[in-house]
Amino acid sequence: MNSNLKKGLCVLSFLTAGFSLFGQSTESDYLIKMDVDKIGPTIQPTMYGVFFEDINFGADGGLYAELIKNRSFEFEYPFTGWTPFGDVSIRSDKPCFDRNPLYARLINRKQLTGTGLINEGFKGIGIKTNEKYDLSFYARTLKNETMKLKIEMVSDKNDIIESKEVSINSKPWNKYMITFAPMQTCSKSSIRITMLTTGVLDIEHISLFPQETFNNRSNGLRKDLAMALKDLKPGVFRFPGGCIVEGTDLSTRYQWKNTIGPVENRPININRWNYTFSHKKFPDYYQSYGLGFYEYFVLSEDIGAEPLPVLNCGLSCQYENIDPNQNCPVDKLEPYIEDALDLIEFANGPITSTWGKIRADMGHPAPFNLKMIAIGNEQWGTLYTERLEPFVKAIRAKYPNIKIIGSSGPQAEGKDFDFLWPEMKRIGVDLVDEHYYRSPEWFLSNANRYDSYDRNGPKVFAGEYACHAPDKENSFLTALSEAAFMTGLERNADVVHLCTYAPLFAHKEAWQWRPDLIWFDNLSFVKTPNYYVQQLFGNNAGTHVLALTKNGKAVSGQQNLYATAASDATDNTLIIKIANTGIDQKKISFILEGLKAGIHAVTLTHLNSSDLNAKNSFETPDLITPKVVHSEINDNKMDIALPPLSFTILRIAR
Q1: Which of 31, 125, 327, 370 is 20 to 30 Å from 196 at the Cα level?
Q2: Boundaries of each Alpha-L-arabinofuranosidase C-terminal domain copy (predicted)?
C-alpha cells in the first residue's frame, strides 16, 4: 500500500486542512500546467455509468418495488416467505397462468386457527406513514358464492396497522385490488390474509406495491434507489449482470425472453447467489423477473443512460463447471445467437416487426435505440472465443452498426488476459470488458495503466471494478484510491470509453458481497464515499481531455497527486479532477495557458476525511459527503491549498 495511505490509516485525530485559494504572496510547492486551447481526445458520453446485477437482493427486495416475497408460490418450496395457517395447500390444476401454474387453495371449515397466509416480505415489509400501497391478487371460488377475505398490515409487534375486507365472487380467475394508507411507519411489517367465510377459495400472484414508484410507473421501481442512480448522471447502464448471466449451469442462465410480457406470467429463476456462497447462503433468493429486460430498457431511458445488455454466449459459469459438456456445443449455438438478434429487434425494431410489436404492446412503441451489446460476462480461453466468433459474425451481418463487447476474462492480467486481448482484436469486437477487484495499492499503481495501450485496437470497457481493502468494506480509503485510478481512465479517454463500478446495491440484512456502491434497508439507504466519487466524475465528465502536466509529465502519482483535466463544450467550462493521497496539504499553482484575461468564477467540490477508515453508515449517512466552495481567480493562474487525503473537482468558467 502507498506509504502515505498507510500513515493515514494510523491517523486517529488529524485536523483536516480546509480547501482554499491562497494569495499570490504564498509560495506554492508544486506547479501544474494546462493548455486550455489544446483539445485532446473526446470523452464519450457513456464514459461513467452504472452496472446492475441482482446480487445482495439488489432486484427483488431492493430496486424492484414489489414488497411480497414469492408472490406466485413458485419457489422450490412454495411456502417460502409465507406462513400458512389452517387448511392451505398448493395446487396447479386449471391455473391462472401457464408459466406460473402454482397457486394456494384455502379451505375454511371454522378451524380454531382460522385459515390464511402471512407474508414476511424481504426481511420484513417496509411501509411509511400516509403513503399509499396497492395490494392486488387473483382469486376464484369453486362455487357460485361470495367469499370474504380480511387482509391486514401487521407490525413487527403484531399490532394491526390497517385492515381491509374483500369479497371474492367469481368462479373464473379474477383480479382484485385494495389500497392501504397506513398511519404508521414500520420497517418490518407483514401482510396477513384470513378467510372470513367458510368454503374453498384459490388465490394467486399476491402483490404489494407502493403507489409512488420511480417516475410513477406501474410494476415500478423503488423511488429513492432509482433516484440515486439518476443522480449519478450515468452515461451507460449495464444489465442484468454479472455472473447471473452465465448461471451455474445453462438451465439457470439468465434468459431475457422469460423476463418480458405480462409480469404475472414470467417464470421465475433461482438466483445463483442463493447458494454460491455457502457462508452467506440465502435459500429464499430467487428472481421473479418482475424487473426484466423491458424494465431495464425503460430505466436506462429514465436515468438518461445508454442501455448495455449482456447476454449468455452458450457457456455457464466456468468457475462452477469444469466439464465442457455442461456448455452449449459450438455447432448448436443458433438459439443463443437468435436470442441476441431478437433482442436487438426487441429494442430497435419497428412495431411491424415480431419483437418490435411485443415491445410496443408492453407500452413503448418507440425504439429504445440500442447501440451496444455484450456477449458473455467474464469467460475465458478457447471455450469462449470459439463461441464469441459466430455471435460477432451474425450480429455484424444483420446489425453492422451495433457495437459488440467481448471479455478479457475475470482477471486484469495473467495468461487468460494475455490470450484474450489478441483474440478480441482478431475477432473484431469494438470494446473489451476488463474486470478488477483489487487492493488500494493496485489502484494507485495502475493509475497509468492505459497510458501505453494500443490506440488503434478495440476500446476498453472497465465493466466491473472496486477497490477491496483487507476488510472489504466501503471506506474513504477505497473511495480515494478509486478516484486516483479514475483520473487515469479519463486521461486515456481515447482508449477507455466506458467504466462502471460493481456491485451496485446491497441489502443491509441480506448481502453476500462487499464493497457495494449503495447500501439499503427497507426504508432508507446510504450513499458510500465510493458513490460520491462516481457521482463527482459523472456530474463533471466534460467533453474533451486537456493536457495537464507537472514537469512535462502526466500527473499520476508524483508526490501522491493524481489528476486529469477536461473541457466541457456544453457550458464552456474547464474541469480539473485531482486526488491528494498524501497526509500533507499541497500548495499548488495551476497555470492555465490560453485562458483569457479577467476574472473567472471557480466552483470547488471536495471530498475528504482525516480518517481513511471512515465510513458512511445508517447511523451517520452523511459523515463523508462532498463540500462545495465558490470562488474566483484572476487571469490564468490559480493557487490552491489542497487538503490532505482528498479528492477535488475544480470547475472554472472560461
Answers
A1: 125
A2: 463-646
pLDDT digits 0-9 by tens, 626-637: 999 999 999 999
Say whether both 297 and 433 belong to one domain: yes
Alpha-carbon span 16 to 485, nearest angstrom: 22
Annotated catalytic residue, options 378, 423, 482, 490: 378
Q: Are residues 449 and 343 in the same domain?
A: yes
Q: Are 229 and 303 in contact (CB under 8 A)?
A: yes
Q: How confident is the model at residue 325 (pLDDT cuts 50, 70, 90)?
A: confident
Domains: count for the chain: 3
Please give the Cα distance from 402 to 380 (Å, whole number).
Answer: 23
The beta strands (E) that lie in 142-226 are given as 147-154, 160-168, 174-180, 186-195, 199-210
Q: Considering 539, 566, 585, which residue would you say is the last residue of a domain?
A: 539
* DSSP code, position 311: E
Residues 117 and 143 in one domain: yes
pLDDT in tens, 134-159: 999 999 999 989 999 999 999 999 99
Same domain? For 161 and 297 the reply is no
Considering only CA atoms, which of 61, 126, 51, 468 is closest in space to residue 274? Answer: 61
pLDDT, position 321 = 78
Domain termination residue (choose one: 210, 225, 253): 210
In sequence order, the β-bridge partners of residue 177 are: 136
The answer to whether residue 378 is catalytic is yes
CA 114 – CA 83 distance, rounded (Å): 13
Structural domain harbouring 148: 82-210
What is 52-93 written as a DSSP string? --S-TT-TBTTTB----TTTTS-SSSTTTTEEEESEEEEE-S
pLDDT at 520 (0 to 100): 98
DSSP 255-307: -GGGGSS-GGGPPPEE-GGGTSSGGG--TT-EE--SS-HHHHHHHHHHTT-EE
Q: Judge whether 633 and 601 are in contact, CB under 8 Å.
A: no
Cβ-contact 48, 235 below 8 angstroms: yes
Task: Transcribe 419-449 into DSSP letters.
Answer: HHHHHHHHHT-SEEEEEEEE-HHHHHHTTTT
Full-model pTM: 0.95
